[in-house]
Amino acid sequence: MSIFMLFPLLLLGDGHIIPIPPRPPGPKPLYIDIKSQHAEVKIVEGVAAVEIEEVFYNPHDMRIEGEYIFPIPEGASLSDFSMWVNGKEVKGEILRSDEARRRYLEIVRRRRDPALLEYYNRDMFRCRIFPIEPHGEVRVKIGYEQVLKKKGDMYEFRYPLKINSLTEHPMESFSLHATIEASWDIKNVFSPTHSIDVVPKDKNKVEVAIEENNIRPNSDVIFYYSASREEFDMSLLTYRKGKDGYFLLSLSGGYISEDRENKAIIFVLDRSGSMRGKKIEQAKEALEFMVNSLNKGDEFAIITFSTDVEVLGDGLMGWRDREKALSGIRDINAGGGTNIEGALLRAAELANKVEKLPVYVVFLTDGEPTVGERNPERLKDKIKKEWENGRLFVFGVGYDVNTELLELLTGEFRGRGEYVTPDEDLEIVLSSFFSSIQTPVLTDVEIDYGKIKVKKVHPEQPGDLFAGSSITIAGMYENPGKTTITVRGKRKGREVVYEERFEFPGESEEYAFVPRVWARRRIGYLLSQIKRYGESRELVDEVTELGKRFGIVTPYTSYLITDEEERRLYAPGVFRAEKGEGAVRIMKDVAFAKRAITGTPQRREVKVIGEKTFYMKGEVWVDTEYKEGMKEKRIELWSREYEKFMESHPELVPYLALGKVIVVWKGVAYRFE
Question: Which positions ≥6 away from 583 have C-beta within 8 Å?
């Protein structure tokens, strides 16, 4: 089943082979496995050309006849559909919605498998495939074109990928590669459903990639992008049902060729004995990359520390001093203790000397203090007394870093923390980070929402905006209405102001992922507060409620995890520890969640369908809105009442694709078993 959906550019490509049962039929349905699926997408000026190639495998000892079905994307150009089976072009037929609905129901009844109800209201392309030899493969290729859905400057692309119930075994490999081209600058490429690699080729061309192996995907791929000629853009996505309103506000920076802001960057590198070997070599290579990537007007300094603290060169240096700096980097060797206090005090001293430029301090360590002040709270206070200028970006390497100290430092000095685990390449992590902060567009960003009252906004301080990147703010709003959003910031010491009119609607259900992105940000913030200040009843209760409601695993909702080893890793006691594998992995998740633009991460135990979240309890999927004692109505699967329910409630049919499920609707819990 290859489902292909694209951004508000909207694309959907999903094909699957349904085996036609032998006569007489066996005791249970036959399944065909998907070995691999590759989607190649080319989007030019909002029109997507999609080509999907799938390899199916017959795991049975007999020859099988199959029916290939493909739920047709909304807005696809049907005349451009083409299909090849094992290299030969084949003809199929298009079934319009009413006829397609009857065919979906026929298959569902026959197989007693509700998975296809996901596509109940969609047109269908179908064709017969024969023979599928025992333990043989069938290669299917399908292509079509589609105009993407657009809202403002934002396009949406969707690729349906929910195949859990249609195969017995995981998909061995899945990949999606998309090339986006536009006449205007492409900005703000993000996915609320998946972790995607975004590679800008130039300001008018971007590549997007996803690669996964041995997966049972339970979420369609969705991603968005915007295209604009402006040097600065705002876009707003909202969701409101009932009294709670949620929003995502994105600020995008263009590629400014003139009047560009330069920066001062201070590198602080741990060279203590524990950094010996691969870590120090990767750190040095990353440092060389960053020095070579400096802009001509940038200033920089390099501080290394072990038991003592050293400053390379003459303190603050300019672009012309790069060779001197690179020579010093090559001579760095690891050995000695860890003097974090001395290193950060020296960084504060240099930062305070910088005039007019924004200052970024990049601090890397793999341990905890062994020289100077060792208490995290007192160490933070000592640095705070001397710190007047700059943002602090902290990279904790390995499992021995003091997570409490790192959270205190990033929280106090307007930066962010990154945790690099032993299985990651430190050079790649650092180089990617530096590329993202290469050119500031707007510093010290402030946002005024005008007449709209917002709350629980994350991040609380937007920070700085860089060329070719974006800042995404997630929050809640109370009162609907039209307003002017004002963004203020600085460029080259001057105040810059941008304004744009937006509407925060009283009812809007189009972007159901928005509350989930907000919830993940909110949980990240709350867990960070717990790490810094300790547990309180209010914080723990809010994390627990949000985790259950949105299906997000936290140290306080680890019951959502069925894997015993993973559940141990997420235990509250592990989270409260200062260091160790469990503490670092949880804080790595927290650091990501605080700036996430994806909603509920995919898990076997959690399913997200539209606005609803379900978790597995025994053999039944349970709506997170369900509460013991509420009014219930039982409906037997496959009964006449079941089919009547689908006919009278087509909006609920996608939830029934889960099979045994409890769905809460208008205060009633419908139990389908």
Answer: 403, 574, 575, 576, 577
Which amino acid makes up residue 490?
Answer: K
Hey, what are 311's tokens? 């400053």
Task: Please provide the DSSP assignment of 123-145 as one string.
Answer: -EEEEEEEEE-TT-EEEEEEEEE
Beta strands in 603-672 (DSSP E): 606-609, 612-617, 620-623, 632-635, 661-665, 668-672
Q: Could you tell me which residues come within 8 angstroms of residue 42 by beta carbon, excluding any fewer than 6 positions away? A: 48, 49, 178, 179, 181
User: Full-prediction pTM beyond 0.85?
Assistant: no
Among 241-245, 387-391, 598-602, 625-629, name the one with the lowest average pLDDT.
598-602
pLDDT for res 101 = 66
Strands 494-504 and 481-491: antiparallel
Contacts of 585 (CB under 8 A, 6+ apart): 419, 421, 569
Task: Number of helices (H) and strands (E) in the chain: give both, helices first.
Answer: 14, 38
Residue of 482, 501, 460 lying closest to 594 (CA atoms) = 460
How long a stretch of residues is the chain?
673
Res 11: pLDDT = 33
Strand runs labelled E in 373-469: 391-397, 416-420, 440-448, 454-458, 465-466
- Which among 131, 221, 125 has a CA at the least distance from the CA of 176? 221
pLDDT value, residue 108: 65
Residue 122 or 350, more confident: 350
Domains of the chain: 6-228 (2.60.40.3680), 232-258+440-504 (2.60.40.1230), 264-436 (3.40.50.410), 514-593 (no CATH), 618-672 (no CATH)
Residue 248, beta-bridge partner list: 237, 474
Q: Tell me, what DSSP letter sits at residue 8?
A: B
User: How far is Cα 608 from Cα 353, in angstroms, rounded to an integer?
Assistant: 51
- 466-483 per-position pLDDT tens digit: 877 788 899 999 999 999
Phi, psi (5° rounding) for residue 58?
Answer: -90, 105
What per-residue confidence (pLDDT) applies to 4? 25
- Interatomic CA distance for residues 80 and 83, integer angstroms: 10
Q: How far apart are the first and last CA of the chain?
A: 25
